[in-house]
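Milestone M4 deliverable, item 7.
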Amino acid sequence: MGVWNSHTSVGNILGSLIAGAFVSTAWGMSFIVPGLIIASTGILCFFFLVEKPEDVNCTPPQHHVEDDEEPIIQNSSNSDSTSYGACAITAEPLEGAEDTEAISFCGALRIPGVVEFSLCLLFAKLVSYTFLYWLPLYISNVAHFNAKDAGDMSTLFDVGGIVGGIAAGLVSDYSGGRATTCCVMLLTAAPMLFLYNYIGHSSIGTTVGMLLLCGGLVNGPYALITTAVSADLGTHESLRGNSRALSTVTAIIDGTGSVGAALGPLLAGLISPSGWNNVFYMLISADVLACLFLSRLVYKEAQGWCGHFRRLKET
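Output delivered:
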């Protein structure tokens, strides 16, 4: 998933490079060229993208399906209770695979972890998109680069994001702790953002290194939540393999994150006249808030690891 999600950062890099190439000569081409690329990609997807595995005679994935008595989320007073951590959701057996219906908005919110990861992504995207839109201007003002060089330099943040997304996926797959992986990366990102603001422009080498490091730590959790976490929650065991819940869960998580993507650049524009330091304090605060929303899930993952280690010692 981390490798697949690198397309986001690759697109950001290409967009910055294209805009930088025309910014001083024919700035209108900064919109026309990406528009042509999008249109061409849309045509390719329309004619060649395979929407469902069944269309090419492949078996659809069935997650967490063990027998016919697995539960699916329902709003029923006679339903059984399925719990995960401190949250509980109601469920009842499904009569047949053909009878599955798309999960409701409220039903998706009751899946344990959806609300926490959605709010975490809101603040993670706030930081990521603030860098996407404001980093070239920051580099130009603070490091005194021209517009093209500042745009080119800012792409290093997304290069780090590619590495960070892959690393986050590897660590979370190995450890089984999605929330813990995100929390550790976000907590580490906060002091790194502080250091970048204060020493990040002392030399070219420092600038490159800090941009790569900050990009990896900021975009790593963002990439993990929008891919592996969304897939995990959208195929939660309580859904009994109901694939029609995946799109709703993904939309809730990514849609909440888009709120942060809109707020971040807006807040940066309002705060920047008072100084870039205040912008970075806002970004650091957003990282800390993102971690706080994951604290309950991190605690549950830690409890699971402790129980696993105790059982290993007993055996």
